[in-house]
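Quick one:
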Amino acid sequence: MNLIADFLLAAGAFSAAVYCLVLSRRLKRFTTLETGMGGAIAVLSAQVDDMTKALEGARRSAQTSFSGLEDQVRRAESAAARLDLILASLHDLPEPPVPEDDETHDDRRLRFVRRRPDRTGLRVAE
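Output:
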């Protein structure tokens, strides 16, 4: 009985040694940086780092654009409030007198004046 137990113990130890040898060879092939999965993992890790940097740059740019747009919206709202006030004050003006002489009125031409907006406060997006 002792002989059978020793034989089974030796067979178990031998099979465990073979199993460990096979696992170590597979692990060496798996982790080689040139051809195995280790190379793929290294490349993917570098790409993740690059994408993280690009994402952080995009986040900073978006934050800058957001603050610029927020400032422009605030200015536009104040300009709209002023325009509303001007329009309300125009309703209070009396009607202009109509000239009786239509011939002099036909000789006049309407002039439209365009003004360029002040662009000193604008920011350029990156």
